[in-house]
Amino acid sequence: MSDEKNTACRVIAVVNQKGGVGKSVTSTNLSIGLVRRKNKVLIVDLDSQASQTVSLGWRLPDELETTIATQLSKIMENKPFNALEGILKHNEGVDLVPSSIELSAMEMRLVNAMSREFVLRNYLDELKPNYDVIVLDCPPTLGMMTINALAASDGVVVPVQPEYLSVVGMTQLFDTVGLVKKQINPNLQIEGVLITLANMRTNLAKFTVEKIQEAYGGNIRIFPQPIPYSTKVKEASASGKSIFAYEPKGNAAFAYEQMVKEVDRNGRQVRTGIRDAKKFEPTR
User: Fold this and answer.
1) Which is the CATH superfamily of the domain at 3-271?
2) Which of 10-37 are b and which e, b meaning 16 or more Cβ less than 10 Å from the residue's Cβ?
3) How far apart are CA 280 and CA 259, in angstroms?
4) For all residues of the chain together, what is the average pLDDT?
5) pTM given for the model
């Protein structure tokens, strides 16, 4: 890649404080979808449960010698580190910084760290020259690790199930994004809200999607193609593959491809000085 492209590396956080909404699956398929569109992509697993690491085929993450916890610890302790150490290569072309249970202690350490909101950003800055896009698979909380992810990111993708409790939690998430944008990272934008695990034949799903459009569609992109509920998506994760490799002609692969196209198009517009993302304003 040219130096010009390297300096334009975008960081995208996949965030929702509610678990079970498809963050890791979305991170996988967004990342590999971007690879398929000729981008050099890195995924960073920021969840101590290491679901992203496991779903990409590394079944024993706690036995890995170097993980994200290793690197962040070195930064907080002001020790020398090799940013490329421990990066794993997936056979579909995406790179991975894995996680492990060691990351569970990082929240408390970050609270007391100097420049605590920027520890992750300091690490990613060392990696950016090697990638076009870095995707952050965030934990299901709005704690310090997620704040670090938002402080380091250019864009946010929000996977959400079309059900009441998931939608209620979006207000808190957008408040947090707005606060980070105002106080820490003025360049932060919402890439879009992605409806996941959707059975659009049900009245509940249709009603919920309508409410999301009414509440947020004026300021935030709602990706138009919901990701359908599909056992094939779960089977793909269990096999360590993306949906594009596991069932390339299925409805889920088509839906993820539409989302990837929008994110990639927006990224190319950003690199040429044109911004297509809707203006995001905090919800309060």
Assistant:
1) P-loop containing nucleotide triphosphate hydrolases (3.40.50.300)
2) bbbbbbbbbeebbbbbbbbbbbbbbbbb
3) 19
4) 91
5) 0.92
